[in-house]
Amino acid sequence: MLLKSIPKIDKFITNKAFDGLSKALITKISKEKIQKLRENILNNNIKHFDENILINSIIKEYKNINSSSLKTVINATGIIVHTNLGRSLLDEKIFKNAIKIATSYNNLEYDLQKGKRGERYEHITKSLKALTNCEDAIVVNNNASAVFLILNTFCKNKEVVVSRGELVEIGGSFRVPEVMSQSGAILKEIGTTNKTHLKDYENAINDNTAMLMKVHKSNYSIEGFSSDVSFEDISKIAKQNYLIDYFDMGSGHIMDLPYNLSKDEPSILELMKQNPSLLSFSGDKLLGSVQAGIIIGKKELIEKLKKNQLLRMLRVDKITLALLEESLNLYLKNELDTIPTLKMLNTKLEVLEERSKTLKSKIEDFINCEVIETSTMVGGGTTPNKKIPSFALSLKFKDFKANKMEEILRKNLIISRIENDKTILDFRTIKEDEVEKIEEILIKEFKNV
Ligand SMILES: *Cc1c(COP(=O)(O)O)cnc(C)c1O
């Protein structure tokens, strides 16, 4: 009996409720739902069927499929280069040129002077040379590809000397030893987990050695009885032995950072003074631009990288190049406030305190809150274990547990942090124009409940 009341698909999809929606997609969803319904009836799982409920569930599914999966969130964790939340942000201003490039034909691989084929990497070398004093540069998809390309080009079946303390695994399953073996390079581990000395490098060099490599430890650091060799010293030995010296910097910051963050971490400008063979770093960590792997160094080596077939698989597209060029120009013009990552890092504590207090004053009549001094980290495998001071608002509502608060906020696309059993909103990463939005959400969720 119930089975008979199931609508016929051809007629069903002409229902007015589906007007204006894609017929093909509505038909597909309807068929699936009706099939499911039939099965449920046959299995005696349902005793009653309502056509309106069916229609609504189809429209809901339709909307779900058509909505963007990538959503903006408010990062209230305080972690600036948050790997899970998209790493570095870009300022809208730098999209202006990229939009023009993406929507018009352009000279991506065309030499306008000679009227013939040009090279896509040329567009970025001008700014990188001006900014870092490098001889030449190349940009690939991300820093992981940069490492792979370099090892594959110069170290296939040859030895690369790396300190055991630097054989790290970086988030997203990037393990230095595995990347090496995949690239064809032979890993020559030296030293121990906590200590590597200059003489370890010297002793490891033999006829089959191609490179001395240093890897940024990224998301860990060794405290206490430990020592490693500076890139400066590694460079010297490499030069004496006519080997390539290469530093996978990971994050790579152009100039010194506030809060003493660059104390043990020389900037790109600092490292370039030693005239290294090769440096590579990410475009979207501390540099604060788009996802990319930037390689700078000696011209003859960059030329060789350009000849490797692998480059075709790792190359960047025009939008990346356009955005990266704009970011680099901001450094050249010293407009660092237009680089959100640096802007957040450089925001004065007083400003963060003020913003916390402002929000507190707007919500304290319905939610328990407290302005607290706290500390956060840069994130993204940059400057491990180094804290930066910050201000936050700690929230407490009735007898709600911290994780319940966190969940309510998260459902509203605010990602908070739990600290000492409290849900906190860290103002280091909350953009100025997001404070009002947070206020609205807190009112909606907690006022008059
Ligand atoms: C982050 C990092 C990488 C990988 O860079 P991506 O841009 O994420 O590909 C490689 N090496 C080190 C030391 C890193 O910190």
From TrEMBL:
Record's keyword terms, sorted: Cytoplasm, Protein biosynthesis, Pyridoxal phosphate, Selenium, Transferase
Domain of life of the organism encoding this protein: Bacteria
Location(s) in or outside the cell: Cytoplasm
GO molecular function, one term: L-seryl-tRNA(Sec) selenium transferase activity
Catalyses which reaction(s): L-seryl-tRNA(Sec) + selenophosphate + H(+) = L-selenocysteinyl-tRNA(Sec) + phosphate
A GO biological-process term: conversion of seryl-tRNAsec to selenocys-tRNAsec
Broad EC category: transferase
Keyword Protein biosynthesis set for record: yes
EC number: 2.9.1.1
Major location (coarse): cytoplasm
Record-level GO cellular component terms: cytoplasm
Protein biosynthesis in keyword set: yes
Function per UniProt: Converts seryl-tRNA(Sec) to selenocysteinyl-tRNA(Sec) required for selenoprotein biosynthesis.
Family: Belongs to the SelA family.
Protein known as: L-seryl-tRNA(Sec) selenium transferase
Protein encoded by which gene: selA
